[in-house]
Amino acid sequence: MTLLTSLGLPLLAQESLLFRRYNINQGLSQNSVYAILQDRHGFMWFATQDGLNRFDGYTFRIFRPKPEDRSSLSNGLLTSLAEDALGFLWVGTDTGFLNRYDPASETFRHFRPVSSVPPRQERPAITSLLAERSGRLWVGTSSGLVRFHPSSETFQLFRSSAQDPASLSGDSITVLYKSPQGDFWVGTRGAGLNLFDPVRGRAVRYLPGATVLAVLEDDGALWVGTDGGLVRLDPRSGRTDVFRNDPGRSDSLAHDRVTSLIKDRNGDIWVGTRNGFDRLDREASRFIHYRNDAFDETSLCDDDVLTLAQDRSGGLWVGTQGGGLSLLDRVSVPFGHLRDKSGAPNRRSRNQIWAIMEDETGTLWIGTAAGLHLHNRRTGSRQNYVHDPRNPGSLSQDIVRSVIMDRRGSVWVATESAGIDRLDPGAGSFVHFRHDPRDPGSLSSNEVRCLLEDRDGSIWAATMGGGLNRFDRATGRFVRFRHNPADASSLSTDRTYSLCQDREGFLWVATWGGGLNRLDPATGGVRHYRHATTDPDSISDNSILSVTEDRAGNIWAGTRGAGLCKLEPQDREGGRFRTYSEEDGLPNSQIYAALEDEDGFLWLTHNRGLSRFDPATGKIKNFGTLSGVQSPEFNGNAKFQSARGEMFFGGINGLNAFFPGKVKDNPYPPPVAITELQVFNRTVDIGPDANGRVVLERSTVLGSAVRLSHGENMITLKFAALHYAVPEENQYAYILEGFDKDWNFVGAVRQATYTNLPPGEYVFRVRASNSDGLWNEQGASLSVVIAPPFWRRLWFQTLAVLSALAAVAGAVGRRFWLQAQNRRRLESMVEERTAELVNANSRLQEEVAERQRLMGELQCLSVTDELTGLCNRRGFQTFGGELLKMGRRINAGAFTLYIDFDRLKNINDKFGHLEGDKALLDVASILRRTFRETDILGRIGGDEFAVLGVLEHGSLVEVLTDRLQHLLEEVNAGREASRRISLSIGAVSLPIGPTLGIEDLLLAADRKMYEQKRLKN
Q1: Is the confidence at residue 734, as pLDDT, over 60?
Q2: Which residues are CB-neighbours of 40 under 8 A, at least 6 positions away?
Q3: How far does CA 627 lie from the centroid of its chain?
Q4: Residue 991 phi/psi, 5° resolution?
Q5: Distance CA 33, CA 321 (A)
Q6: Helix H segments across 455-607?
Q7: Contact 477/461 with Cβ under 8 angstroms?
Q8: Which residues are 375's β-sheet partners?
């Protein structure tokens, strides 16, 4: 009788893939996606039952039919997509209309490839589209194959003929596919597959009677998805192999209806079916299934797969019937994630991984909080072992903290609080080793945290409270190493957690509260490394969660919340550690485990995911759940590295398995698009507005130029990096050439706003990086022109000069004419005409002076508060900036007062706004009487004033503030209480450094003012 207990439930039924979901909740117009395409700019397009969706990685822009707009879509139920050589997007519909989208104008034109079909005059539905590089467009319909000639905008129809065996085998076209070798394949509904010659219009027929739904060429073989399984076809011999669903085989095809096929850049073939998403293992002729899990938001969004597509960065897009979209990115998500997906009640405990070990057969031994689980990834076989109180040979306890296999093939299992179990080769039950208080040769404690086999074949056990134990194989008993307060060479504490043997044979013991211990197995002597608050070179904390040695002989200790500590060989005697923490780029300082890869990188787990650390440079790259990490939280000492270099780390949601050398930065720099232009927060549309004025001639995506009037000087530009792997981590930088002096690096912010732009010509440029920091340096650009007002334009200034010259010329001409008519009186008339000329010039000068006076008044009004005559905020910043420049030249300081008129609203509400305006004028008068002529006075808000001046000596601010308070008391002396003026004042004085600005001073004074308000209240 077998004494091992099996749960009978599948553990780690598959390696989990991390799918990102998009549906109506994220902005998709409808959850049934029939076609997917990435255009030349990088946008993703999705055809749904309710319109066309353009996606930039963050937001969906939806195009729907508008009955009143002939340039919109013809109807909303869309079936197919294609982009032609000119960049036009073609959209097929179920009503037979073909729509051509122009990305420049963002409008549609409608075509009807096939006329209505009798007897019911139904319009044939468009089922598939194929655009060739030559510019030709092929249209598959439910009533034949159509070729579109773009030059003449005419259609040519190819149909089946019962009398012609070289015609198409059927008229109901389901799929169009052009292989890398140039072969053109046409699939039909119920009439098989055709190899079609477009030049002669002839076809060679395959798979008679089949409904073909997908076609894919791979190394000369043709894979054909049908409603009766997946067919591998050799076109030369006609030989076929059919893969179907077999209920008796878990690795057979998920469903016989194969709707879509795609080959990714790794060479894997993916199969979309009515019952999930399969990856074909061609060597083993088996299928690995990926399906929807109602309890897992990172699983496939729905099992009814309709279409597949691959974007240029390697992401696989899965369109489903009713479930929306799923995105699988195996480049930016490099970590395999294994977990229990059975839905069992103890599923959470089974995904709590504490120990991992792989044996020579490829079987993973996984210690969890719900037993010991075996999973052979080569064969797919699984076995689960748990504690059974009725079975003395079963596992001692379900919480397994460490698993190792010794050189004899025995498996040793450490449990949370029930000692150690050993499973010998061929044995049917576990042998138990537990603590016996009466037996000094027994295990010193049942709380075992780590097991290790040393180079001599001895088994060591670290316990939590019983110190360290070495198993003597000859006697079957344990030798204990305990803390002895009277022996300085004993363990520093009995609470031991993790073990490592270095190349010299020393045993390094991580303890809980006792620092790091180095034990000499030959003598039993222990060297202690403890944290000392007075020694910055000591180990950073006394609670150690993991310890390992790298190939250079460095010891690395992961601490409980104090970072990663490095002890180099030459520093062992001195005990000098180098500590790496969050200040060095680690996202978290609680280091659970560390492993070294073949390139010398350390892989670290903590409470913020997984990190790759380069000891040579100190550079750290962090990975979170968006990269496939099982959870932000890992478990202490849950690590294993196989002989092949594969690494395993366990956490609270399963384990990650990966080959470090395959974790590469995404090499695809993202295309960047300017997606929207706003003026005063209103989106600018392409083409003429209601008044016939054109601001934007074509889409900003195509780099259109924008021309605005001088009053349209607040603009917002929105942009996106069209890289879909981890869009939250894409980074941006932008510059407005002609305005900004340097690039603005803004992290993940995707818009730029400029206010009060002066007239001029600008170029807006934006760059972006992908989630791995690879930048697209070219980026995108947009020309922006803000026209000057008419009085600053050349034509107006020229006209003014010409008018003046015309007046002068007219006067001189009149003079010459009069001289010609009155030659006889020339002498007497000269003085008179000269006087008239002088008067004309005087009037001209007066007009010019009057125009200059009016323009000066306009300029003054732009920087002056209309009520008080003080500077407005713009004037305060303008004149204040000049004052700061002057003060900086003479090495002076600056002072600023921020003044708030308390309870101005009460005066307005009780006595009216005229009384409130009078009070504001009184405040302005007080400020003028208080401060010097060289100081800048401003009303910078409705009830807020500010003062800026150059500081000659330290007591000046106090003197001026006292004078202000005194004058305020004089003004309030003759007023009733409800009309009195109350001011809150914040005053600061600062040296005028090279970077000190007006806003810095205002902000500092504002803070002081609010401190005074709190004291006053």
Answers
A1: yes
A2: 83, 87
A3: 11
A4: -65, 145
A5: 6
A6: none
A7: no
A8: 364, 382
